[in-house]
Design brief:
It contains 18 helices and 27 strands. It has 539 residues and is an alpha/beta fold. It folds into two domains: 406 residues, ANL, N-terminal domain (Rossmann fold, 3-Layer(aba) Sandwich), CATH 3.40.50; 114 residues, GMP Synthetase, Chain A, domain 3. The structure holds 5'-O-[(S)-ethoxy(hydroxy)phosphoryl]adenosine.
C-alpha cells in the first residue's frame, strides 16, 4: 500500500455522514461504530479524584457545546479559545468547537495577561472558555463571550454548565471538509509577534497515522500524554489523536510530581506514554529507587518530543523503567509527528514516517543543514493567520523549511543539531525572544533588551535577558528583581525570564537588530564567530 493510499484509507475510515470533522472523528465516530460505552477520558483530579467519560459521554457533551455556541451566535469559521486547567470541560470544548465548524484555539493557563491579550486579538476571538478564577486573575480580556467552567460565573459571562444543560445533546455536526480550518495554535519565531498557525480538519488523518506509527497506539490502549493541551503537543497528542484512535486518554490535572507520576502509571495501567525530555530528566534526577517501588509493567511504548532527548535519558529509561523513550520530532506547523526513532537508538531523531519526504538542505562540510520536508501532507499548516509573507518564507524550492539544523548519519537516520534561528526551547516550550524583549522594554528603566536561551541541565534552556539601561538609571539587585517581577506579571511563569543581567550596550547588526547570537556566545564563553554583520564598535 503506498502512503498516499494509506492516508486515503485513513481519511475514508475517519469520515462521517457530514464529511471529515476532527471532533466527530474523535468522539461520535466511536459511538457510530458501537463503541460508545468504551472509556474515552480518564480524568485524574489534583486531589486524586477520578472521573471517567465514555465516548458516548464525550459525543453528547460536545454536541451540547456545539449547540451552545450556535445559540450564542458564534458561527462556522469563527475562533473559540480555551484557557483552562486540565479538566474534562477542556476536552468537551475542543471537540464541540470542532463539531460546530469553528476553529479551536487553545491557550496555556500559565500565560500572563500580555500574551493572552495579544493572542485573543490576533485570533479574533469570538468566545473563550475559562474558569472564574482564571478570568479574574488574567484581568479584563477583550472577547464577546466568556463561558465559565466550574461555576461561579462573574457578571457579564456565561455559566458553561447552564448553557450545556439547556443545549441540544444531539445536534448534527457541521459539514466540514478536509480543507476547512480546524485548529489555531500560536507559535513563535525569532522576530515579530507570535504567529497563528492554522491547520485544517484533514490533519486528523496524519495525527492518526502518526499515532499508530510513532506511538504504537492501538484502540483500547490506556494512553497518557503529559503535555498541557495549552501547547500543541497536548492538543494534538494529548486529546485529538488518541481519541480518534479509540484509546483511553488519561488527563491529569496535577502538576509534575515524581511519585504521583509513577503512581498514576501503576494505577491507571498506562500502556503508551508520551512525554518530554525535561520531564524525563526530572524523573532521572529523583533517582532509580523510586520507580522500583511501583509496578510499571503496563508500559509498552514510551516516546518523547519537543527538545533534544539526551542519550542518557534513553539508556536510563530502558534500564530503569524497562522500556526506552523513543524520540519523535515535529513542530506546530507540521501538525503531526514527522520523524520517529523506532529502535530508540540513543542520540538519534529517527527516520521520516511513511509518506513524509525529508532531506538535509544545503549541508555544510560537516553535513549539517536545515531539515526540509516535501509538501503536502494532511496536517501541514495552511498558513499563518493574516500573514502570507511569513507563510511564504517557510517554503523554498518545493520544500517546507523547518528552521532546525540536522545531520544524517551513514545509517540514513537524522540527528538533531540545533535551531537555525534564535527561538528558545525552555522545558520544551517554544518561546520567541521578541515577545519577552517587548515586555522588558515597557519598563521605564530599560533602553534595550536582548533575550536568549541559556543551556540548563534540566529544562534544556532557560530564558535569560540582557538589558541596557536608560541614561541615569543605576543597576542594583533591587532593579533586577523588579524587572524579573515585571516580566513575570506581564508574561506569566511560562514565558518570563529566569535570569537577568545588565550590559552597557547590546550588540547590533548593521540593520539595527540585536545580535542575540553574540549575547549567547559571550554567555557561554564560545568563540564569537563571524561578526562581519556587527555594527561598528558594538562589540
Ligand atoms: C524542537 C512542538 C529536538 C525543534 C511539537 C522544533 C525538537 C520545535 C524535537 C517545535 C526533538 C521538537 N528533538 N528538538 N525530538 N521535537 N523539537 O512548534 O526545534 O512548539 O522546530 O512543537 O521544537 O516546537 P513546537
Amino acid at each position: 500500500m503506498s502512503d498516499s493510499s494509506s492516508w486515503a484509507a485513513i481519511r475514508a475510515e475517519l469520515s462521517g455522514p457530514a464529511g471529515l470533522n476532527m471532533g466527530w472523528a474523535a468522539a461520535d465516530r466511536h459511538v457510530a461504530l458501537g463503541h460508545g460505552e468504551a472509556p474515552a477520558l480518564r480524568w485524574v483530579g489534583r486531589d486524586g479524584a477520578e472521573r471517567t467519560l465514555t465516548y458516548a459521554d464525550l459525543a453528547e457533551h460536545s454536541s451540547r457545546f456545539a449547540d451552545a455556541l450556535r445559540r450564542l451566535g458564534v458561527r462556522r469559521g469563527e475562533t473559540v479559545f480555551t484557557l483552562l486547567p486540565r479538566v474534562p470541560d477542556l476536552v468537551v470544548a475542543l471537540l464541540g468547537t470542532l463539531k460546530a465548524g469553528c476553529v479551536a484555539a487553545p491557550l496555556y493557563a500559565a500565560f500572563g495577561p500580555e500574551p493572552l491579550r495579544l493572542r485573543l486579538a490576533l485570533g479574533r476571538a469570538r468566545a473563550v472558555v475559562t474558569t472564574a478564577a482564571l478570568w479574574r486573575r488574567k484581568g479584563p480580556l477583550d472577547v464577546p463571550h466568556a463561558l465559565i467552567a466550574g461555576g461561579d460565573a462573574p457578571e457579564g459571562t456565561h455559566d458553561l454548565a447552564a448553557l450545556l444543560g439547556a443545549a441540544d445533546p444531539q445536534v448534527p455536526v457541521a459539514p466540514t471538509g478536509p480543507d476547512d480550518p480546524a485548529l489555531l495554535h500560536f507559535t513563535s519565531g525569532t522576530t515579530g509577534a507570535p504567529k497563528g498557525a492554522l491547520t485544517a480538519h484533514d490533519a486528523v488523518v496524519a495525527q492518526v497515522a502518526s499515532a499508530r506509527a510513532a506511538l504504537d497506539l492501538r484502540p483500547g490502549d490506556v494512553y497518557w500524554c503529559t503535555a498541557d493541551p495549552g501547547w500543541v503537543t497536548g492538543t494534538v497528542y494529548g486529546v485529538l489523536a488518541p481519541l480518534a484512535c479509540g484509546a483511553t486518554v488519561v488527563l491529569d490535572e496535577g502538576d509534575f510530581d515524581t511519585a504521583r507520576w509513577y503512581g498514576l502509571i501503576e494505577r491507571q495501567r498506562v500502556a503508551v506514554w508520551y512525554s518530554t525530555p525535561t520531564a524525563i530528566r526530572l524523573l532521572m534526577r529523583a533517582g532509580d529507587d523510586l520507580p522500583r517501588r511501583f509496578d510499571l509493567t503496563s508500559l509498552r511504548h514510551l516516546a518523547s518530543v519537543g527538545e533534544p532527548l539526551n542519550p542518557e535519558a534513553v539508556l536510563w529509561s530502558r534500564r530503569t523503567l524497562g522500556r526506552p523513550f523513543h524520540d519523535t520530532w515535529w513542530q506546530t506547523e507540521t501538525g503531526s509527528i514527522m520523524l520517529a526513532n523506532r529502535d530508540a537508538t540513543p542520540g538519534v531523531l529517527g527516520a521520516p514516517l511513511p509518506g513524509i519526504g525529508a532531506e538535509v538542505w544545503r549541508p555544510d562540510a560537516e553535513g549539517v543543514g536545515e531539515l526540509v520536508l516535501r509538501p503536502p501532507w494532511p496536517s501541514l499548516f495552511r498558513g499563518y493567520l493574516d500573514d502570507p509573507a511569513r507563510t511564504a518564507a517557510c517554503f523554498a524550492e518545493g520544500w517546507y523549511r523547518t528552521g532546525d539544523l540536522v545531520r544524517r548519519g551513514a545509517d540514513g537516520l537524522f540527528r538533531f543539531v540545533g535551531r537555525a534561528d534564535d527561538v528558545i526551547k525552555a522545558s520544551g516550550h517554544r518561546i520567541g525572544p521578541f515577545e519577552v524583549e517587548s515586555v522588558l522594554l515597557e519598563h521605564p528603566a530599560v533602553a534595550e533588551a536582548g533575550v536568549i536561551g541559556k543551556p540548563d541541565p534540566v529544562a534544556g534552556e532557560i530564558v535569560k535577558a540582557f538589558v541596557a539601561l536608560k541614561p541615569g538609571v543605576a543597576w542594583s539587585d533591587a532593579l533586577a528583581a523588579e524587572l524579573l517581577g515585571h516580566a513575570r506579571r506581564r508574561l506569566g511563569p511560562a514565558l518570563a525570564p529566569k535570569e537577568i543581567a545588565v550590559a552597557p550596550s547590546l550588540p547590533h547588526t548593521r540593520s539595527g537588530k540585536i545580535l542575540r547570537r553574540l549575547l549567547k556566545a559571550r554567555e557561554l564563553g564560545l568563540p564569537e564567530g563571524d561578526l562581519s554583520t556587527l555594527e561598528d564598535g558594538a562589540g
